[in-house]
Known about the structure:
Blueprint: H1 2-29, E1 36-40, E2 46-48, H2 49-62, E3 68-73, E4 80-81, E5 87-95, H3 97-100, E6 106-114, E7 127-135, E8 139-145, E9 148-155, E10 160-165, E11 174-176, H4 187-197, E12 207-209, H5 214-224, E13 227-230, H6 245-258, E14 262-264, E15 284-287, H7 289-299
Parallel strand pairs: 3-5, 11-12, 11-13
Antiparallel strand pairs: 1-2, 3-4, 5-6, 6-7, 7-8, 8-9, 9-10, 13-15, 14-15
Amino acid sequence: MEEKLKNIEISKICESLYKSAETIYEKLKSGAGLEFLDTKNQSHDKQLELDVFADNCFQENVSKNTDVRFILSEERPDLVEYGKGKYSLTLDPLDGSKSALVGIPSGAIFGIFENASKVEDFNGDNIICGGFFVFGINLEVYISINGEASKGVFNKEKNRWNFVSVNKFRSYKMFSINASNRNKWDTWLQKFYDDLLYNNDSSKSYNMRWYASMVSEIKRLIIQGGLFAYPGDSREGYSQGHLRLVYEAMPMSYLIESIGGASTDGKISILKKAVSELHQKTPVFIGERDLIDRINGLNN
Length: 300
């Protein structure tokens, strides 16, 4: 009975997320909201009008749910408390918004945590749902709830989401990383990159892609396989990379690990990292388990 109630509560929160995504997708398709504002978010990124619109849309819809206690967003400095429920939500309400300016699909990343009452509780032990929307040719969602992953596509004509199970992580020789920063990486990563891309054995050589949109990168990863990385580097402010642990890296890692992939910050699984700050950054490697094992082996 308790598990059934839990599923109902999570479903209600997800319905609020889906409703929000539908509204944001329509605004994005109209071409509105792509102007820069004179403001920055908590990671010091310049905001588009659509960043703020998306954040407000999610906050408004989700906050109506009495099962939600806290909402943490990339666009806001602090936890926002809405109620006394046992579930809390983390959001990157518009991931890849700058890439959307040149036609690369953007999206939104979300995680649901149980019994999180302080910052340290937003960890891998308490996450029960992780996923992301893609605002592309179609409105899609990739989501894992209690370790069960699925893909949904919104049918506007019938006003409903159609879901199929996702239960296999594929293998493909593709490495997604911003190689323009190669000379700023740690030596081990430079050698690892060179070994994958410039292997004399063509059967072992990888191709490279970089969309600069995490939702697009992880969608490709789910469809094809391979490895996605946003490492730390020697640039000022980038020693821990640029991705946020709680509302980007952790939900994505939860989803990928639920279908057979793996994640690491270079040493340990993203889901095993301690959380000390709401907007904490972390190096991120997500992909095929054998590649993640190789990365961990280079650092341990």
